[in-house]
Amino acid sequence: MINPLEHARIAVLATDGFEESELKEPVKMLKEAGAEITIVSPKPGKIKGWKMKDWGGSVDVDATLDQAVPGDFDALLLPGGVINPDRLRLEPKAALFVRGFSEEMKPIAAICHGPWMLIEADLVRGKRIASWPSLKTYLRNAGATWVDEPVVEDGYLITSRKPDDIPAFVARITEVLERTLAPQGS
């Protein structure tokens, strides 16, 4: 089995209310490609997912925002769900964590409502961003060009609209990481 992301370290920033499919499916696919995943949250223990219209399952938190350092990872994944990014954007440490990946020009992948955190970290100005349609005005007001496409790559930002786009979203994350982690000269 080929593991294109062997040795890739990906942080997933989430809290209670993450859209279950937008965290669990990409994590499963990225792990299958060989990536090491670390769930980062403002609080320790477990965080509870949202499954379309009601609470879903939980996932274990591997590190809190007080423990996690962007320099320890190769990329960041921001799952959506309305509740998750809305809660995270009230956490100053969450915005600083996201901004840390930007400062190091590391890939940041956000799906659905996840780009709310990109707005909070002031990273969307001048960028093409895909998201759930209800974020269109927020993104435009923050200086982004909102696009209705399954996956968009603009610089180090990778964005996507919804759960149906997860295969294309993860494929692009994998491509970007293969490029950024490739040894120089290969």
Give me a quick take on this structure:
This protein is an alpha/beta fold. It has helices at residues 20-32, 83-88, 92-103, 115-120, 136-141, 166-181; strands spanning 9-13, 18-19, 36-41, 46-51, 54-60, 63-64, 75-78, 108-111, 128-130, 145-147, 151-154, 157-160. Strands 6-3-1-7-8-12-11 form a seven-stranded mixed sheet, with helices on both faces. Strands 2-4-5 form a three-stranded mixed sheet.
- State the distance separating the first and last CA atoms: 21 Å
Uncertain regions spanning at least 5 consecutive residues: none
Question: What structural class results from the helix and strand content?
Answer: alpha/beta
Number of strands: 12
* Number of DSSP helical runs: 6
CATH topology: Rossmann fold
The CATH class, by name, is: Alpha Beta
Description:
By secondary structure, the chain is of the alpha/beta class. The chain has one domain: Rossmann fold (3-Layer(aba) Sandwich), CATH 3.40.50.880. Helices cover 32% and strands 27% of the residues. The protein has six helices and twelve strands. It has a seven-stranded mixed β-sheet, sandwiched between helices. Helix 1 crosses helix 6 (166-181). The chain starts with 8 loop residues before the first strand and ends in a 5-residue tail after the last helix.
Fold topology:
Blueprint: E1 9-13, E2 18-19, H1 20-32, E3 36-41, E4 46-51, E5 54-60, E6 63-64, E7 75-78, H2 83-88, H3 92-103, E8 108-111, H4 115-120, E9 128-130, H5 136-141, E10 145-147, E11 151-154, E12 157-160, H6 166-181
Parallel strand pairs: 1-3, 1-7, 2-4, 3-6, 7-8, 8-12, 9-10
Antiparallel strand pairs: 4-5, 11-12
